[in-house]
Amino acid sequence: MEKESQSVLIPDLAPASKGFEHIDTLLHCICNEIPVSFAHYSYNEQRFCAHIVHPYLLKEHRNRWYVFGYSELHKEVRQFGLDRLNDIILVERKFYRQQGIDTAKLYNHAIGVFLSDEKKLTTVELIIDPLYANFVKTQPLHPSQEIVKYGERGSVTIRIKVYPSRELVSLILSFGSGVIIKSPGWLRSDIMKELKIAFEINKHLESEMKQFYGK
Question: How many domains in the chain?
Protein backbone atom coordinates (compact mmCIF):
# COMPACT_ATOMS: atom_id res chain seq x y z
CA MET A 1 0.00 0.00 0.00
CA GLU A 2 2.87 2.36 0.83
CA LYS A 3 4.49 1.81 -2.58
CA GLU A 4 1.17 2.42 -4.32
CA SER A 5 0.61 5.71 -2.48
CA GLN A 6 4.11 6.90 -3.37
CA SER A 7 3.34 6.52 -7.06
CA VAL A 8 0.06 8.47 -6.96
CA LEU A 9 0.85 11.09 -4.31
CA ILE A 10 3.47 13.56 -5.54
CA PRO A 11 4.13 16.60 -3.30
CA ASP A 12 5.95 19.66 -4.58
CA LEU A 13 9.40 18.79 -3.29
CA ALA A 14 12.37 21.10 -3.62
CA PRO A 15 16.03 20.24 -3.01
CA ALA A 16 17.19 20.97 0.53
CA SER A 17 18.62 24.47 0.60
CA LYS A 18 22.11 25.22 1.83
CA GLY A 19 22.20 26.58 5.38
CA PHE A 20 19.64 24.21 6.87
CA GLU A 21 22.44 22.81 9.03
CA HIS A 22 22.54 26.12 10.97
CA ILE A 23 18.95 25.91 12.23
CA ASP A 24 19.65 23.95 15.43
CA THR A 25 22.40 26.35 16.51
CA LEU A 26 20.38 29.47 15.75
CA LEU A 27 17.24 28.08 17.37
CA HIS A 28 19.25 27.37 20.52
CA CYS A 29 20.55 30.95 20.50
CA ILE A 30 17.07 32.41 19.98
CA CYS A 31 15.53 30.40 22.82
CA ASN A 32 18.39 31.20 25.20
CA GLU A 33 18.98 34.80 24.04
CA ILE A 34 22.58 34.32 22.93
CA PRO A 35 24.12 36.67 20.33
CA VAL A 36 25.98 35.10 17.41
CA SER A 37 28.72 36.19 15.05
CA PHE A 38 29.05 34.97 11.49
CA ALA A 39 30.39 35.84 8.06
CA HIS A 40 27.57 36.71 5.65
CA TYR A 41 27.99 36.76 1.88
CA SER A 42 26.27 39.66 0.13
CA TYR A 43 25.00 38.89 -3.37
CA ASN A 44 24.91 42.61 -4.16
CA GLU A 45 28.43 43.42 -2.98
CA GLN A 46 29.80 39.94 -3.82
CA ARG A 47 31.87 39.69 -0.67
CA PHE A 48 31.74 38.37 2.89
CA CYS A 49 31.13 40.71 5.81
CA ALA A 50 31.42 39.96 9.55
CA HIS A 51 28.29 40.48 11.67
CA ILE A 52 27.24 40.16 15.29
CA VAL A 53 23.50 39.54 15.45
CA HIS A 54 21.05 39.15 18.32
CA PRO A 55 18.66 36.60 16.75
CA TYR A 56 14.90 36.89 17.30
CA LEU A 57 13.32 34.37 14.94
CA LEU A 58 13.78 32.00 12.01
CA LYS A 59 11.54 32.18 8.95
CA GLU A 60 11.21 30.01 5.86
CA HIS A 61 10.28 31.34 2.43
CA ARG A 62 10.33 29.29 -0.77
CA ASN A 63 12.44 26.57 0.80
CA ARG A 64 15.04 29.06 2.05
CA TRP A 65 15.57 29.88 5.71
CA TYR A 66 16.37 33.31 7.16
CA VAL A 67 17.40 34.51 10.60
CA PHE A 68 15.88 37.78 11.75
CA GLY A 69 17.54 39.84 14.48
CA TYR A 70 19.30 42.99 15.60
CA SER A 71 22.52 43.65 13.68
CA GLU A 72 25.21 45.51 15.62
CA LEU A 73 26.78 46.61 12.34
CA HIS A 74 23.60 48.17 10.94
CA LYS A 75 22.20 49.28 14.33
CA GLU A 76 18.80 47.92 13.34
CA VAL A 77 16.87 44.72 12.78
CA ARG A 78 17.88 42.82 9.63
CA GLN A 79 17.33 39.41 8.03
CA PHE A 80 20.10 37.12 6.79
CA GLY A 81 19.81 34.09 4.51
CA LEU A 82 21.12 30.95 6.17
CA ASP A 83 22.49 29.74 2.84
CA ARG A 84 25.02 32.60 2.96
CA LEU A 85 26.23 32.17 6.56
CA ASN A 86 29.65 30.84 7.50
CA ASP A 87 31.62 30.37 10.73
CA ILE A 88 28.77 30.81 13.25
CA ILE A 89 30.13 31.47 16.75
CA LEU A 90 28.19 32.05 19.97
CA VAL A 91 29.12 35.38 21.55
CA GLU A 92 29.38 35.97 25.29
CA ARG A 93 27.73 39.34 25.74
CA LYS A 94 24.42 40.76 26.92
CA PHE A 95 21.54 40.01 24.56
CA TYR A 96 19.85 43.08 23.07
CA ARG A 97 16.17 43.13 22.16
CA GLN A 98 15.11 46.20 20.21
CA GLN A 99 12.12 48.00 21.68
CA GLY A 100 8.94 48.13 19.62
CA ILE A 101 9.69 44.96 17.65
CA ASP A 102 6.94 42.37 18.06
CA THR A 103 8.38 39.36 16.27
CA ALA A 104 5.15 37.38 16.70
CA LYS A 105 3.21 39.95 14.67
CA LEU A 106 5.89 41.41 12.39
CA TYR A 107 5.37 38.91 9.58
CA ASN A 108 1.59 38.74 9.91
CA HIS A 109 1.37 41.36 7.18
CA ALA A 110 4.41 40.33 5.15
CA ILE A 111 4.66 38.58 1.81
CA GLY A 112 7.96 36.78 1.77
CA VAL A 113 10.78 37.62 4.14
CA PHE A 114 12.13 41.02 3.11
CA LEU A 115 10.46 44.10 4.54
CA SER A 116 10.77 47.62 3.18
CA ASP A 117 13.01 50.04 5.04
CA GLU A 118 10.02 52.13 6.08
CA LYS A 119 7.97 49.10 7.19
CA LYS A 120 4.68 50.95 6.66
CA LEU A 121 1.58 48.80 6.47
CA THR A 122 -0.01 49.37 3.06
CA THR A 123 -3.48 48.60 1.73
CA VAL A 124 -3.25 47.16 -1.78
CA GLU A 125 -6.26 46.73 -4.08
CA LEU A 126 -5.97 44.51 -7.13
CA ILE A 127 -8.43 43.72 -9.91
CA ILE A 128 -7.88 40.11 -10.90
CA ASP A 129 -8.72 38.91 -14.41
CA PRO A 130 -11.43 36.20 -14.73
CA LEU A 131 -8.73 33.72 -15.76
CA TYR A 132 -7.11 33.94 -12.31
CA ALA A 133 -10.08 35.03 -10.18
CA ASN A 134 -11.10 31.55 -9.01
CA PHE A 135 -7.51 30.67 -8.11
CA VAL A 136 -7.23 33.79 -5.95
CA LYS A 137 -10.59 33.11 -4.30
CA THR A 138 -9.71 29.52 -3.40
CA GLN A 139 -6.10 30.30 -2.42
CA PRO A 140 -5.80 33.87 -1.08
CA LEU A 141 -2.65 35.83 -1.79
CA HIS A 142 -2.40 36.71 1.91
CA PRO A 143 -4.37 35.98 5.12
CA SER A 144 -5.59 39.60 5.16
CA GLN A 145 -7.21 39.20 1.73
CA GLU A 146 -10.83 40.27 1.41
CA ILE A 147 -13.03 40.45 -1.66
CA VAL A 148 -14.15 44.00 -2.35
CA LYS A 149 -16.13 43.54 -5.54
CA TYR A 150 -17.19 40.90 -8.05
CA GLY A 151 -17.00 41.99 -11.69
CA GLU A 152 -19.76 41.28 -14.19
CA ARG A 153 -17.50 39.19 -16.42
CA GLY A 154 -15.92 37.13 -13.66
CA SER A 155 -13.15 39.42 -12.48
CA VAL A 156 -12.72 40.10 -8.78
CA THR A 157 -11.33 43.04 -6.82
CA ILE A 158 -9.38 42.05 -3.72
CA ARG A 159 -7.77 44.00 -0.90
CA ILE A 160 -4.75 42.96 1.16
CA LYS A 161 -2.87 44.76 3.95
CA VAL A 162 0.86 44.09 3.74
CA TYR A 163 4.28 45.61 4.12
CA PRO A 164 5.83 46.67 0.79
CA SER A 165 8.50 44.23 -0.34
CA ARG A 166 10.26 42.82 -3.37
CA GLU A 167 8.22 39.65 -3.00
CA LEU A 168 4.98 41.65 -3.23
CA VAL A 169 6.11 43.13 -6.55
CA SER A 170 7.18 39.69 -7.81
CA LEU A 171 3.84 38.20 -6.80
CA ILE A 172 1.88 40.84 -8.71
CA LEU A 173 4.15 40.52 -11.75
CA SER A 174 3.51 36.76 -11.80
CA PHE A 175 -0.06 37.46 -12.97
CA GLY A 176 1.25 39.18 -16.10
CA SER A 177 -1.55 41.04 -17.88
CA GLY A 178 -4.12 39.35 -15.64
CA VAL A 179 -4.01 41.98 -12.90
CA ILE A 180 -4.68 45.70 -12.55
CA ILE A 181 -3.13 47.58 -9.62
CA LYS A 182 -5.99 49.78 -8.48
CA SER A 183 -4.10 51.23 -5.52
CA PRO A 184 -1.75 52.51 -4.26
CA GLY A 185 -0.57 54.59 -7.19
CA TRP A 186 3.12 54.40 -6.28
CA LEU A 187 3.01 50.60 -6.43
CA ARG A 188 1.37 50.73 -9.86
CA SER A 189 4.12 53.11 -11.03
CA ASP A 190 6.88 50.85 -9.67
CA ILE A 191 5.46 47.81 -11.45
CA MET A 192 5.01 49.76 -14.68
CA LYS A 193 8.70 50.70 -14.51
CA GLU A 194 9.65 47.05 -14.00
CA LEU A 195 7.56 46.02 -17.01
CA LYS A 196 8.99 48.82 -19.14
CA ILE A 197 12.56 47.81 -18.32
CA ALA A 198 11.79 44.16 -19.09
CA PHE A 199 10.14 45.17 -22.37
CA GLU A 200 13.10 47.30 -23.46
CA ILE A 201 15.64 44.60 -22.60
CA ASN A 202 13.75 41.91 -24.50
CA LYS A 203 13.02 44.26 -27.40
CA HIS A 204 16.73 44.99 -27.74
CA LEU A 205 17.56 41.27 -27.56
CA GLU A 206 14.92 40.46 -30.16
CA SER A 207 16.42 43.07 -32.48
CA GLU A 208 19.89 41.57 -32.06
CA MET A 209 18.58 38.06 -32.71
CA LYS A 210 16.86 39.18 -35.91
CA GLN A 211 20.06 40.80 -37.15
CA PHE A 212 22.08 37.69 -36.30
CA TYR A 213 19.70 35.16 -37.85
CA GLY A 214 18.39 37.45 -40.56
CA LYS A 215 14.75 36.98 -39.55
Answer: 2
> Is residue 7 assigned to a domain?
no
Residue type, 146: E
* pLDDT tens-digit map of 95-115: 999 888 777 677 888 888 876
Report which of 61, 101, 60 is spatially closest to residue 78, judged by C-alpha positions. Answer: 101
Q: How far from each other are the two terminal CA atoms of the chain, in whole angstroms? A: 56
Task: Decide if 2 is inside a domain.
Answer: no
Mark residue 116 as left, alpha or beta (left: phi above 0; alpha: psi -120 to 50; beta: remaining). Answer: beta
Question: Model's pTM, two decimal places?
Answer: 0.76
Provide φ and ψ at 47, rounded to 5°: -160, 160
Cβ-proximal residues to 17 (8 Å cutoff; 6+ apart), any chain: 63, 64, 65, 82, 83
Residue at 114 is within a domain:
no
Give Cα 11 to chain centroid, integer Å. 22
Give the SS3 label for residue 121: coil
Containing structural domain, residue 127: 122-213
Instruction: Give Cα separations from 6 to 3, 13, 63, 187 (angstroms).
Output: 5, 13, 22, 44
Cα-to-chain-centroid distance, residue 1: 39
- The one-letter amino acid at 134: N
